[in-house]
Amino acid sequence: MTDAPDAAPETPDDDVIEQKAVRLAKRERLLAERTDAAGGPYPVTVPVTDTIPALRERFADLEAGDETGVTAAVAGRIVFSRNTGKLCFASLQSGDGSRIQAMVSLASVGEESLQAWKELVDLGDHVYVSGEVISSRRGELSIMVADWRIAAKAVLPLPNLHSELSEESRVRSRFLDLIVRDRARETVLARAKVNASLRETFSGHEFVEVETPMLQVQHGGASARPFVTRSNAFDTELFLRIAPELFLKRAVVGGIDRVFEINRNFRNEGADSTHSPEFAMLEAYQSYTDYNGIADLTQELVQNAAIAVAGSTTVTWADGTEYDLGGQWDRISMYASLSEASGRSITPETSADELAAFAAEVGVDEPAHPTHGKWVEELWEHFVKPSLTRPTFVMDFPVDTSPLVREHRSIAGVVEKWDLYVRGFELATGYSELIDPVIQRERFVEQAQLAARGDVEAMRIDEEFLRALEHGMPPTGGMGMGIDRLLMAITGLGIRETILFPLVK
């Protein structure tokens, strides 16, 4: 995905317009000939007794030409059709992509029914069939149809199943993508497996899943530009949440010592191959641990998710690349790794002016609202980030870029924060949480001063959160991880592929 405007939806060509007219005429005929048994082009239901994947599993060992004597009734979308004189063939596809062949013969259904099939049934229609389960002479699992009816008439044709949809078409018309492309369906199933795995891992560690507000009177929990809306009922400005952090920490104050949420977040920022304005986020907080303990938990969460999807911690990306998520992941210091890669000693005491001069020497652009910490992070991304191949925790960040994080227990000027890099992008972040309400207020004031100078991503003073901290929050480790990015790390896909229905213009 790029920052360029998305292309407009394609205009239907003359052939599609003509096909739609023909199909609408068939719909009218089905309506005119409707009976209680047939139900017209859109019946309320059809008497399905079996599913296509269940039949494929049950009769996986049938030899070519075998008959079972078993009657089954299934429904599916027609994705292939071939009509001959006395015998018609169709492939019915279920939602998971599995298929079964329907054989409609003159001997089984009679001349009138066979002719109706030829005249009324099109590619893309949902069709109900019932009959004996057999294996065709070519060894294809089939139903010898004794009864059939249309379950839903498609008035627009499917795209060509033998050519790839463009990325733009896949994103704009995901329903078609799911019909025609195995990878699209597999990604949806992979996401479901990832979420189930995350919940299972948390359950094994006695975490409690909660829900926090998506509409907030005060945005916070991250440095990001919010979406703004308004409540008519309360006559007040509201924000779509940029993070659930400050509410989850309230839960910790209230005694829920291990808490997590899988949620939707919204950030009114740029969109590219790793960012979407609306995205899924996991956040978790564990009392009586620190950023090292929460890093251990994060590694376990990611590795278990990989196993749930791929059966192994070695995953295969969409381009065929194998990527190893197993083993113990490296932990490197931001300042030490930057000093080593740049060949210049950079410490928390290095002034912002020195960093700015060095950045100019090496061609690093000035960040918006530059501070010591923002210069360090920009330089680190220039010198170190491109060299990271294996999953790596980057530890100990500048204090001025991390207003919600505890100062390092032994290194002045840094905080106990890590970012996890996988596949060249930031996958997760974790903290030893700042629990001192006095220092937290000072940090919020510093953020407010940045906001006053025009930093639209700076946090505001959140008095309700500070009031919660003043009631005592235990030592806590916390983490946040993008679900969409976790899918990217496991599948090798871009963010618009891992989100089922991404925002497009």
UniProtKB/TrEMBL annotation:
Belongs to the class-II aminoacyl-tRNA synthetase family. Residues 198-502 form the Aminoacyl-transfer RNA synthetases class-II family profile domain. Mg(2+) 1 binds at D419, E426. The lineage of its organism: Bacteria, Bacillati, Actinomycetota, Actinomycetes, Micrococcales. This is Lysine--tRNA ligase. Pfam families: tRNA-synt_2, tRNA_anti-codon. Its cofactor is Mg(2+). One of its GO terms (biological process) is lysyl-tRNA aminoacylation. GO terms for molecular function: ATP binding; lysine-tRNA ligase activity; magnesium ion binding; tRNA binding. GO terms for cellular component: cytosol. InterPro entries: Aa-tRNA-synt_II, aa-tRNA-synth_II, aa-tRNA-synth_II/BPL/LPL, Lys-tRNA-ligase_II, Lys-tRNA-ligase_II_N, Lys-tRNA-synth_II_C, NA-bd_OB-fold, NA-bd_OB_tRNA. It is an enzyme of class 6 (ligase). The keyword Metal-binding applies. Its EC number is 6.1.1.6. It catalyses: tRNA(Lys) + L-lysine + ATP = L-lysyl-tRNA(Lys) + AMP + diphosphate. Mg(2+) 2 binds at E426.
